Each structure stands twice: as C-alpha cells, then as structure tokens.
Amino acid sequence: MVESKVGYPYIEGEYGIPFKDLPLNTRGVTKGGSGKSLHYYIRSNFIEIEDEEFSWYHMYAKVSEGTFIAVVFTRRYITGERHPDLFARKFLIFAYEYFIANGYEIDRISTYWVPSLDKFASSNYDQYSEMLKEGFDPEDAARSTWTGRLAVEFGFTEIEGITKDKSEGITVVFRRPDQN
Predict the structure, then answer these.
(1) Entry pTM
(2) Residue 123: how many CB atoms within 10 A of its CB?
(3) Domains contained in the chain, number
C-alpha cells in the first residue's frame, strides 16, 4: 500500500489516482478516477505514473543518494489541456512525503526543464528564460519558477548548480542552506 501524510486526491468516477490501493514493488495498470488507464511502477524510492493512451502525460519521482528527482508532464503545452488524474503539485508533495515516510533522507532536489516540444514543454523552462530576459540572475530566476517556489516551500532555498545540456535542457539542483 502506497501512502504518505498528505495523500493524493482520488474520487472514483471523477479524478485522481488510487495510490492507497496500489501494492509496492509492482508494475501494473490501474484506473484513474476519470476512468483513464494508467500504467504505474512503484517501489519504496520510486514512483512512476503514465497515461496508457498518451504517454506524454507522465509523472515520475525518485530519491537516489539523497537527491529527490522528479519530472512531471500533466498538461499539453500548446493547448493547455490538463490530464484529469495527474496533478503536478499534489504528486510532488505526495512523493516527497512518501519517500521521507519510507526512511529516505532528502538533501537536494534536482529538476530538468526542457524547451518547447511538439506537444509538451516545461513551464519552468519558459518562466526561467523569461526571468533571465527581464534581468534576473540565474539563481533568482530558478527560485522564481513553479518548481523553484515548491523547492523553497520544502526548505531548499539554495542553488547548488544550474547546467544546460546540448539539447538546451536545463538541470537545476536546489539544496537546503545547511547542506554542502
């Protein structure tokens, strides 16, 4: 059974994911509250959910060597269409609490932002780029993104690193002030 202090929304016939009914250490398919089929893979340090019909709708989180790593795509970039069962903020809070409850220490949050793709993009990437254009320094721009604000809520207020890869994707690592 997958649980955390905060839970994840689920109302059968409407929306959400029945995490409390999903067994640990398994891969499978479940029905979201909306009736959509969702692939899942859950371990004590890893959660992945993907829409069976349209795999770009995807939520993934894991903890590895003290680093919380997550990627979420819950809405289409161009149309803004949201998935009825996938909620980015609620998932990230749920996953963070779930990993802590399973005894994992989290010292860092690592996130990866991608530029516009055909159907999906990272709103963080756009927010970060816009802030840089407005004259913000890179660290303040990163903290001002959607994910940056959530990291700050969790106490990860410092930036350990910002790197851009060959495909223009950006990795940002947040840490607590007392972590080196």
Answers:
(1) 0.88
(2) 14
(3) 2
